[in-house]
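Take just one protein record:
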Amino acid sequence: MAATPASARGQASPQLLSIGQVLARLTPEFPDLTPSKLRFLEERGLVRPARTESGYRKFCQQDLDRLRLILTMQRDRYLPLVVIKSYLDDVDAGLGPLLPGSTADHGPSMLPSGRRLSRDELIREAGATPMLLQDAVSASVIVPGETFGDDTLAVLKALVELQRCGIEPRHLRGFRVAAERELGLIESALVPVSRRNDASSRARAAELAVEIAGQLEIVRGSLIRSALGRLVP
């Protein structure tokens, strides 16, 4: 079965691995890795395997190394996928980014790592106004604080674009309510793991919470895309 021709990954060869072969190589180190998680990482744009003419995924050595890095950052640094993807995007762009959390590494944290921006830095990098940031905080779309991370920067950038379309932070108040409902679902799903109060279980709960949140985001995005079909036939 021939691999996709003229790919930068090279021609079809034994170096290209199936999902099963990737799992065989990585599960000894990452026992929780499953085919569905591999597909989820692809859907989130963190890894881009080649495809055969029949649509089967084929992974090269670079994909394998990238997956190992992603899984290590999740397991050892408790980083959410949005932070990992931002880091990998910077690597792909040749920016030589610092590994998230490596500047002041005092052990693993369940909080998103990466840069910490002051209020003025956040506003400047997002191309926002102080009023837009204040409105976002008032609408509970952005959590107030002395410093802000990459997640908040991404949200504020999105709010800048939405404002250009006439959508203000006050229109998004319902998002906080929806997020709290989703948090309740995640919390319920974590109960069996959270009952075991040891370091390994806490790490697994943190990883599982991120995975569930990502899956919920896929469902939400699909529902919105389906609804868009009624607006733009």
Notes: The CA atoms of residues 29 and 183 lie 30 Å apart. The radius of gyration is 20 Å. Residues 1-13, 103-113 have pLDDT under 50 and may be disordered.
